[in-house]
Structures are given as C-alpha cells and as structure tokens.
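Continuing the batch. This is chain 6 of the set; chains 1 through 5 are on the previous pages. Same settings as before, nothing changed between runs. Recording input and output for traceability.
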Amino acid sequence: MLSGAQAGLSWSLVLKRRKGYRRAFDKFDPDKVAYYSERQIQKLTSYPEIIRNRMKIEGAVRHSSKFRESSGTLTLTAGVSDLLVIRYQSRTSKRGRSFEFRQADIALCVGREPSVLCSAVMSRVASDSVRKEILMSTSTVTTSSTSVYTTPAFWERLWRTAGIQSILCFLVAYIVYGPQPQVGASADTLAAFYDGDRMRILIAAVFYGLAVLNLMWFAAALRTTLADAGEDGWGAAATASSAALGALFLLLIAVVAALAYSIARSGNHMLTSAVNDFVWAGFVLTSFPRAMLIMSAAFGLWRAGLISNALFAGGVAAVVLVLLGGTTWVSGGFWAPDAVYSRFISPAIGLLWGMVVSGVLLTRSPATRTGW
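Output for chain 6:
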C-alpha cells in the first residue's frame, strides 16, 4: 500500500504519514480494505494524514482485493545452479505451485543483487500471470539494455530536467541575441541591430523557441508531481501560468523575428520603433505569468511537504520580486522597462527559482503512472 502511495514521490514523505495510513486503512487489514465502499474512498480523498490522490486510494483497495484472492504460503528454496525455486500454496486451493527464476534475470528486472532478492520476489509470484510479468519485464530490460536512450528511466530523467534545459536555452538565446535596443532608440540604432544582425536574431529565435518548448515540459513534470502529492489545484495553476507565459514569449519571439526578417528592412522607422517598444512592454507583462508559475511551484511543493519552510519563504520572496517587475513603467532610470531591474534582476530571480524546482523534481522517485 505504501509502495503504491510512494509512486512519483520520495519515501521520506510517505513514511512520515505511515501512522496516518495505518489509521485510515484499518491497520492495513486487507479483509476490510478490500470491501471499502465508494463513500469510504471519497472520504479518504479528504483525509489529511495520507496522500490524497484518488487513483492511489482506489489502487490500494483493488490491490487489497487481489491480495485476498491470491494470498497463501510461500516457501523459498535454492534450486540447481543459480535458480530460485518458490513454492506457493494458496489458501483457497489445496493444490500448490512451484516457480523457478534465475537469480540474474530477477536481479536485472528489479535492479537488486541476488543476495537480497527474496523479499522482492516473494510478494510477486502468487499467480502464473505475475510470473509471466516478471519474465516479460526481464526480457524487455535485457533487450533495451543495449541502449540507455530507449529505457523509460532515461526519458523520465530527461522530463524532470526540462527546467534546467529551458534555462540553458534561454541563456544561450540571450547571449546570441545581444542587447535589445532601448525604448525610443534612434533609427540608425534600430537598423544596425535588426537589419545588420539579422541572422543572429533569427538563430536566437530558434533557441528561444526551444526554451519555451522545454518550459512546457517542465510545467508538465511539475504538474504531475503535484497531482501525485494530492495538490491538483496548484498543478493546474502551474499548467495555466506556463501556457500563458509560453504564449507571450512566442508572441514576442515572432515579433522580433518579423522585425529582423522584413520590417526593419522596409525603411519605415516609425513602425520599427513602435514594434520595438511593444516588445519591451510585452516583456514587462510576462512578469505576471512568471510570478504565478513561481507561486504554484512554491505553494504546491510546500503543501505537499516536498520543500522546507526556508525554501517556501524563498519562493514567496521570489513571487513578490518578480511581480515588482510588472510595475517598471518609469520613463527612465532603474525602474524603466529597459533598465537593470526589468532586464536582469527580475529574470535572474525566475531562472534561479527554476533551478531550485528542477532540483526538487530530480529528487523525486520515477513516476509509475503514465506521466510522460
């Protein structure tokens, strides 16, 4: 039961709630849990001392029922060579069954050394279908072991590092792009930047697009982690804010690419200057979805018990500081749209918090449901 609740989360989080699980699930008595009604399941979804994920609660009830049907007596003996012979005697049948497993195959399947396989195997041989599952899993792992890039673990890790990948793409794009002309820049400055550095801007647009793509993937990983911890509301907030932020970024990328591709070459200084100022205004407005994304991660991970109070306080501070970036409308100086706070300080805070959240996601156990 606790193993199912741990899916996608850390064992420390689940073990802290073990006493709560014992109280909620009738001291782990399968004869009682197997007959839980819909009303009892619904009540457990609001029980504060367990992971309030309905799929995991329903899974615990189903597994209790299967356990009652298949439970019996297991006897483990050593076979010829490296074989493990497991004798299973069902409590509902007088006939027993024997299963043979190669220690090396099971070790490959469950990722453990042969000397500690007994506990991993004994709970999984109650039926022929389970035995076939182990052997098929072993065959699959053996086939895919030739390339790490085809394993679920590789894609799971890639999914959880999407935030770091997004940050790296943003930094590369920023370096390639260069300093954006300021609000009200002269015609010569705009022409030199958008027309003279045309190819560099278009290359930067590609990296910005990759950064947005990884940002969406990062938000998906965050949303799944929060949902597994019972914080679906904050997970939905992360999805919505990342979608709004991604849409704004894509709009600004398209506008900048259009300036470099054709608008700046048309010789219409008034239009080029107006669109350049629009880019600055749009960048200031990204402060609001950025702050919401930071808030959803900070509050969601904190309520789920996945970050400390100190990190939560840092997240709240980051929300406030990034929100202040949405007020940088002064015509000149430190608080202007194209000044230091808007260009460097506010984005740097968001990137730093993204690194923190990515680190938290990397410490979570791999998701067992189809999250990616």
